[in-house]
Design a protein that fits this description.
The structure is a single chain. The chain is α/β, with parallel strands linked by helices. Helix content is 41%, strand content 18%. The structure holds nicotinamide-adenine-dinucleotide.
Length: 315
């Protein structure tokens, strides 16, 4: 079967994701959809011209019909943060877009996996699950995949270790209440707390830098897209190549760490059917408390925006 991905939203994030997907040879076909026709056609032309460098992949401006034989839909449509805005400032506008688009996705292909990237990603992942509760295993958010990569990069610089050998997760909200799991972080198989140069104060400073990276980048260049593009490509690869890869993805939580009825990131195993396994992990009471606070913060936003399970969509 041909491996196909449809990306909705051909702005900074959607087009960079397509570029990373081409570079990593994840798919045979990529279709980009955007309400801005001129933009999507230009992005596609530019991306097509990289095919001779990267290798064959059919890339085109598409329609919702492309979802019929896609395995993944990447949702990157919507407004993005402006300098000074938080991700929650986007909820009203982007929730409208998700309410409009998700039924079109699942009516074209009830089996497709929906990867939410549009912010606030946890709230919109929850919204999509509330509209399609029967699809919750197929609905995931990029969550703290990006935040964890930023954290691992900075830890790598500090410890002078390749970040790919650093196993450290940020969990909870993709945003201001996210939580670094220092108690379970390792370099190779060694707890980072036992590594030479470990200092809780220094590591928490690094975490703050990772958490606030989006604000710094947006201040300088309006948007963040390279790292999330690479993250999207890794998530799609895990699905299309059934990798059963462990990633901290946003998904609907059912009684994990005493948390329920909210979407947030915890490490999960991702394969071609979506999330196939939750990881059980022991974290220290301080981190558990912070994770619960993050869940409570997300629930407040869900409630404030009246996102409820009464609006289930039948397709
Ligand atoms: P952008 O403005 O460059 O692109 C958004 C695109 O969506 C535009 O081209 C617009 O025409 C299109 N669009 C809007 N409504 C649409 C609709 N109904 N149907 C189809 N297309 C539509 O913004 P961006 O920088 O690419 O960011 C996109 C989203 O990704 C934002 O919400 C941003 O906050 C989010 N983001 C998420 C992460 C993450 O880690 N989850 C990281 C970076 C950005």
């Amino acid at each position: 079967m041909s491996k196909k991905i449809t990306i909705i939203g051909a702005g900074f994030v959607g087009s960079t994701a397509a570029y990373a997907l081409l570079a990593k040879h994840v798919a045979d076909e990529i279709s980009l959809i955007d309400i801005n026709e001129k933009l999507v056609n230009s992005q596609v032309m530019d991306l097509q011209h990289s095919v001779p460098f990267f290798g064959l992949c059919k890339i085109k401006a598409g329609t919702y019909d492309d979802i019929k034989n896609s395995q993944v839909v990447v949702m990157a449509a919507g407004v993005s943060q402006k300098p000074g805005q938080t991700r929650f400032d986007l909820v009203k506008q982007n929730a409208r877009i998700i309410r409009d688009i998700t039924p079109k996705i699942f009516s074209k292909n009830p089996k497709v996996i929906l990867l939410m990237v549009t912010n606030p990603v946890d709230i919109l992942t929850y919204l999509a699950c509330s509209l399609f509760p029967q699809k919750e295993k197929q609905i995931i958010g990029s969550g703290t995949v990006l935040d964890s990569a930023r954290f691992r990069f900075l830890l790598g610089e500090y410890f002078k270790i390749n970040p790919q050998s650093i196993h450290a997760y940020i969990v909870g909200e993709h945003g201001d209440s996210e939580v670094p799991l220092l108690s379970t972080a390792t370099i190779g198989n060694m707890p980072i707390t036992r590594f030479k140069n470990y200092s809780k104060k220094a590591i928490l400073k690094i975490f703050e830098k990772a958490k606030n990276a989006a604000y710094s980048i947006i201040e300088g260049k309006q948007a963040t897209y390279y790292a999330i593009g690479a993250g999207i490509a890794q998530i799609c690869q895990a699905i299309l190549h059934n990798e059963n890869r462990v990633l901290p993805l946003s998904h609907l939580i059912h009684n994990q760490c005493g948390i329920s009825d909210v979407a947030l990131s915890l490490p999960t195993v991702l394969g071609d059917k979506g999330i196939v396994q939750e990881l059980i992990f022991d974290i220290c009471p301080e981190e558990m408390e912070k994770l619960k606070e993050s869940a409570a913060m997300l629930k407040k936003v869900i409630k404030k925006n009246n996102i409820i399970y009464a609006n289930i969509v039948k397709i």
